[in-house]
Design a protein that fits this description.
Strand content: 15-25%
Mean pLDDT: 93
Helix content: 25-40%
Largest sheet: 7 strands, mixed
Strand order of the largest sheet: 1-2-3-4-5-7-6
Oligomer: single chain
CATH topology of the largest domain: Aspartate Aminotransferase, domain 2
Structural class: alpha/beta
Number of domains: 3
Number of strands: 17
Distance between the termini: 22 Å
Radius of gyration: 28 Å
Number of helices: 16
Shape: elongated
CATH superfamily of the largest domain: Type I PLP-dependent aspartate aminotransferase-like (Major domain)
CATH architecture of the largest domain: 3-Layer(aba) Sandwich
Low-confidence stretches: none
């Protein structure tokens, strides 16, 4: 079955001759319920009536573009529908029927109010029963309408595949319980342990835990001496948290355009912005996990902050620039609910941030807020750190699977552009650029298949800001597909099926 393409399309009246031939195929007759041939007139009358019946639906199965069989649904008016399937003999025994059944059920659920698909298989037909189970059907108790000497099986409408889903287990639960029982809920020993562990992991001298990723950005800017009226370069396609952190210091965020291949800042436009705006600092983001080109900024003689909320294991953050910041928001690579961290080799900067994250017992100051991370959050983050390598490997495998199955000739590079694969990348998001459609239309299409997708970044640039045409395009056309360690193969298959159906 490897490399085979199994596709479905709705039956039309022009298929009458093909289906008539199939219905009289000896192999199909032997597998069917009626177990007899039909006349042409009988078939034509039945087929015409079937297509006109709103309670019925039929899909033709194509394997490598060759007609191979059909999937049929009856009784769509209630909460249940009944399914039947057959394949031509040369296509049986290789898993094609299983794939066709799954896809047909997904299509039915996406286009109707049916909640359950029923199948009735003769008790002596063990291979068919196994195939239905592989497709996702389960044995159910027969009722009065079930045919005699048949097994009853059901395929329920699958649950939503969310855009994000947390990865956690018993270790996180127990760590949180132990933190609660310790009586040290605010910044305490677990925060210090997390700082030590992260510093060792990424190879920096200092790791300072704070309350959020936004707080990490704000405190780093303050620690670097950014004041009211200063200008800070930020990518034009980036989370509004960057602009908020700059504005919180009284400074002005100046957008730079981004590159279309990885959505990180464009070094050429960054140079233009530097010459025109004379900024006092730069924030560079590892967008969706692709490492930003920090090297292009090293000779600027300006402080550079690397935002590693999407990918902090790329090339020792905090070492290749002035400072790096992390986020432990629930959906980030290391999820702890909330929390953030500043990474740096600078003793002076780290000391300032440690002093600034706690307002207590210090003179009044409108910039000195409560930016402490709690021990409960740190306890969960430590557990997440222990499973980080496994989570990253799962994300990488899922991204490879997306690449392999979405790199479809005639679609990839024409209708959509797959995310780039670069050295040092981690797969925080799998973000696809649409070339011939808007993001919202695709998201709405996937929603009909009970799949959550998102425009991963919302536009924030004010009117009159520096033009960033590539960033503007990204806001309109980039869609993020589900990607997280707990995404199952079957769930990813559903995502891929629904995504490709958008262009079929």
């Amino acid at each position: 079955m490897s490399g085979a393409e199994v596709q479905l399309r709705p039956a039309v009246i022009e298929d009458a001759a093909t289906i008539f031939q199939w219905r009289n195929d000896p192999f199909i007759i032997a597998k069917g319920t009626q177990q007899r041939s039909v006349t042409r007139d009988e078939h034509q009358a039945w087929f015409t009536g079937f297509l006109a019946d709103s309670t019925c639906r039929m899909y033709l199965i194509h394997i490598n573009r060759e007609p191979a069989g059909q999937v049929r649904f009856d009784g769509l008016e209630g909460g249940d529908a009944e399914v039947s399937i057959y394949l031509l003999e040369r296509f049986t025994g290789r898993g094609f029927g299983v794939m066709a059944l799954r896809k047909a059920c997904w299509e039915l659920f996406a286009s109707s109010c049916v909640e359950r698909v029923l199948a009735f298989v003769r008790t002596e037909n063990a291979p068919s029963c196994r195939a239905f189970k592989k497709a996702g059907f389960s044995l159910v108790e027969a009722n009065d309408s079930s045919p005699a000497n048949h097994h009853a099986l059901a395929f329920k409408r699958p649950a939503l595949v969310p855009h994000n889903r947390l990865t956690h287990g018993e270790p996180e639960a127990m760590a949180a319980v132990e933190a609660v029982r310790s009586g040290q809920w605010t910044s305490g020993p677990r925060v210090a342990m997390l700082e030590t562990a992260i510093a060792a992991r990424v190879g920096v001298r200092h790791a300072v835990a704070v309350a959020s990723g936004l707080g990490a950005l704000r405190l780093t800017l303050l620690g670097l001496g950014i004041h009211a009226g200063d200008k800070v370069l930020v990518p034009g396609y980036s989370c509004v948290a960057l602009a908020n952190a700059v504005l919180a210091c009284g400074a002005c965020p100046v957008p730079m355009d981004v590159c279309a291949n990885d959505w990180n800042f464009d070094p050429r436009d960054a140079q233009n912005a530097r010459e025109a705006e004379h900024p006092q600092a730069v924030i560079a983001v590892n967008t969706f996990g692709a490492p930003a080109e920090i090297e292009a900024l090293r000779d600027w003689d300006l402080p550079v902050i690397e935002d590693c909320a999407h990918g902090f294991v790329a090339d020792k953050p905090g070492v290749r620039c002035t400072a790096a910041v992390l986020s432990f928001h629930a959906t980030k690579l290391l999820g702890a609910g909330e929390g953030g961290m500043v990474l740096s080799d600078s003793d002076e900067l780290s000391a300032r941030i440690r002093a600034w994250r706690d307002y207590s017992d210090q003179p009044p100051d409108g910039t000195r807020l409560n930016e402490q991370m709690s021990d409960l959050e740190a306890a969960v983050a430590l557990c997440q750190l222990e499973r980080l390598d496994a989570m990253l490997a799962s994300r990488h495998a899922l991204a490879e699977s997306y690449h392999a199955q979405l790199d479809v000739p005639g679609l990839a590079g024409h209708c959509y552009q797959l995310p780039c694969v670069t050295t040092g990348r981690v797969w925080y998001r799998y973000a696809v650029e649409l070339l011939e459609a808007g993001a919202r239309e695709l998201i709405d299409h996937l929603k009909r298949y009970d799949i959550g997708a998102a425009e991963p970044i919302c536009a924030w640039r004010p009117a009159g800001a520096r033009p960033c045409p590539t960033a503007d395009r990204a806001y309109r056309r980039v869609v993020s597909l589900p990607l997280y360690p707990t995404l199952t193969k079957l769930e990813q298959d559903r995502v891929i099926h629904a995504f490709l159906r958008y262009w079929s």
